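Hi team,

Filling in the usual template for the complex we talked about on Friday. All components are listed, including any nucleic acid strands or ligand strings, so the model treats them as one assembly.

SUBMITTER: L.P.
PURPOSE: interface mapping
COMPONENTS: three
RESIDUES: 1012
SEQUENCES:
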Amino acid sequence: MRYILILITLLAFGCKKNYQLTEAYDRGKEVYITNCISCHGSDGSGNLLYPAINSRVANAMTLERAVWVITQGSQNMPSVDLTDQEITDVLNYIQNSWGLETEVISIDSIISLKSTTKNAAIYP
Amino acid sequence: MPRFTLNINEIEYTVEAPERMPILWVLRDHLKLTGSKFGCGIGQCGACTIHADGIPIRGCCVPVKALEGKVLRTIEGVPGEHPVKESWRKFDVAQCGYCQTGQIMSAIALLDRKPNPTEEEINRAMKGNICRCGTYKRVKNAIEEASKNQIT
Amino acid sequence: MKRRFFIQTVSLGSSGFALSATLPLLDVNGVPEKNALFEPNLLMSLGEDGIVRFKYTRHEMGQGSFTGLTMIFAEELGADWEKIEVSQADYDEKYGNRLYGNTGGSGTVRRMWEPLRELAATARTMLVSAAAEKMNVPIEECFADNGMVVHKSSTERIPFGELASLASHQEVPKTVTFRDVADYNIIGTPKKNLNQNKIIEGQLQYSMDVVIEDMVYACIVRAPIMGLDVISFNSEEVKKIEGVVDVLQVSNRLEEVDESDTKTSMRNGVAVIAKDTWTAFEAAEKLQVEWTNSSLEDGDMESIENDLAMAKGNSAAHTIFETGNVPNEFKNTSRTFSRTYRNPFQAHALMEPMCATADYREDSCEIWSSTQHPNRILLRTGIVVDKPIGFFLLHNLPCGGSFGRRFYDDFITEAVVLSKVLQRPVKVVWSRKDEVATSGYHALQEEEHTVSLGEDGKILAWRLREYMSAQTEELQWAFPFQVYYNTQRLQEVVQVPFRLPIMAWRSVQAHPHALGLESFVDELAEHLGKDPLEYRLELLENQMELPKSFGEERFEVNYNSVKEILVPRAIRVYKELSRLRDQYVMSNGENTLGFAGHSFGPTFAGQMAEISVENNKLKVHKITCVVDCGLVINPQLAENQIEGSIIWGLSALFYNNVTIKKGVVEQSNFDDYKVLRVDKSPQMEVIFLESEEAPSGIGEPGVPPVAPAVLNAIYKATGKRIRKLPILGIDNLELA
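RESULT (copied from the run log):
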């Protein structure tokens, strides 16, 4: 029930500027600070050791790939122990910060992506 | 060897280190500031948490080059009478204590961002700090207490 | 009867303490304590300033005995808590096993309870005697309290400091009387962790923080499979890396030493020596080592299953406990009930990876590290470099968690060997990957319980067969004590030749044992249509007499005396759990409850888990733990220990699972070896049952009941019985 409410809220704030005012955006920022900021930087520009995620190129990474990397890890990044809600929030934060603007993703689509990518070792 | 000027706990340090060396090892091995701990090396446990411009960062992941010009703070730079340290004392949080300087640095940064965090917000900010002694309950109690005692 | 532990007169001649009580106190460098005027034993000195300086002769790893032992000593001495200072004693054989034995088995307070009180009471008696002499009153009219000796009738009082010199000339008493528990004002109070301030300031020095002049740092690439040896490595290439000092082979050439008591746990490997830790780590990543072959290389989880199946089919069972004639009963029975439970391989994942610094010189070797068992470690290290224990000076620093891991010598031996070769101080630092992937593990184990049931549901015979790693020490076989001696029983061990090295892990054998026993009792209660708590009490109240000498021959475990302590404790704990359940039901609690209890040493702990499962999402809301551990020395720190044990137990229940592929451990860090984080941490409540019996240990007893209590609750909530750990992922179970 709560999820549905959140989803409705998110749909209501479709555009970036309004989204940045939502609680969901703030949650995503908090998740980012706790789990991502050290390597990817407060502006998403990465550092000498870790890649930037604030450019359109980085954002061209498919959602499937992003969910996969977070939940399963990749060669350069350990998996991160996040809940479905946290994955949703942080991806929405990343995709709607630093001048980026993307349609807000629902938790349901994240859950569905998680289950489709879970056993498919399609990503290195 | 490249040379870096770092502002740590309001003191200027000049260090010679490879530019890729994570700040944790500059602090620990070069500057002998050993309050920040090595736990995992991949930003998963939070034992090395310090502040860069007030933001909590895992020292094991951030190369020294990225921190030039930033204001850094480690556990050694937090006064003993800081409300978070006081409440840590009150709840006798630490057991082995190894993760606790990282816990404290994460807690301070959280309260700087959100002076009255909800339980959910505490969880979100503190889940990057692992404690194998299992002091989580007291960590939360201490943060709630410190949030009441902050100087506003 | 209850008071027997407290009003006690001890004859010192019999305990061997009269001797040490007359020795002057020397610190390890052989220099007498500064300004010390009164040094009645190896652990205490007192100067004119009135400060009692106490030496802590165990290993502090978060369990709090640094504080707890100081409290016991201060209490028995009649000291002022504000005027006692404690410091960590370097290891020295002069302390003997009684004062500086191992720190393990939740036994520090339990084992030090008598010796510390003997030493403190002796010192107190001499101080009182000195005061009586000074005041010129009979000694019987004086007593020590709060750092002073008080004359009863005149209430004249003299501070300890003023008595120090005179006390040192008093005769060492032949008998001493312990203080009455009713007079305690330190024991039983929530004194703060004495390391707390240093920890909060980042000033507590762990092994990782040691800095010695001219020291170099070593990272070792260890054999990925125990026993593999180095054939070759790209030494020249790695030596070219800036900051690398040397690349050296570390060899364990003592494979022929068979005795498990003396064999080092060190692996073969190649060490990269560098000017700082990070350079050593980075260079080690570039090291390429060619290893010898091993038959273990074909080992994976499937071969582990095969090993287990083979042992089940072919291996002989060792009987470790037997009453009555269980096999005979099974031959004639028509109704049996049998279930099997599994514990996986588990790693320690302690917060501070292992670390040791050694400075090997011609005539001695100084070591800075953290160890639970200095005597055994130095013996093993000494064998490797062919030196006696006395050659080493070990500074036993507090550690960032141990949980059994620092019982073993490998990291210390590595530092000693490298320092000997390099002729300078060397600090060996383990990476997280080293700690998770090239360590020793809590063993995979299966517990198979079978009972024969009569028409009325009465248990006629009970067999427990444990499928256990062949490396598990025999001493551990008899260790997890039973409390249900309600029927004829047979307990057997079947050894399985598992491939991974085994090490002690918080609560050791009690963990798989409780998982099996306490799940099984719940299943049995259900099978018989009985209430799980009432059924436990029923089993506890119908106890059989055990053959008197049972178990003593082989393991020196007297089951009858253990039973005498544990069974009443278990009954008290389960009755309290019943009361808590009634209370929960009365308050219309919405969640599902599950229960389990288990012993660890003489302590008994029982738990009530409150959980809910919705759409395969499990939430553990709260765990309440009821503990009977005898007298509680420090309620605050004891509560910390139980809370920590619950978190430890939940990590094991949810996540912990070490697996191998081609003989090599697959996990390497907190991403693939998960542990509980704050957001999944439940509410906790700890209840200590009041007791004046001797304190019996608190570091581990909270762990074993966690898994079965939650599993019993999950069954009640879902109808699904899970019989193996870890549980996440089984039938898509997730955490809410």
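MY TAKE: The two ends of chain C are 50 Å apart (CA to CA). The longest helix of chain C spans residues 108-135.

Thanks, L.
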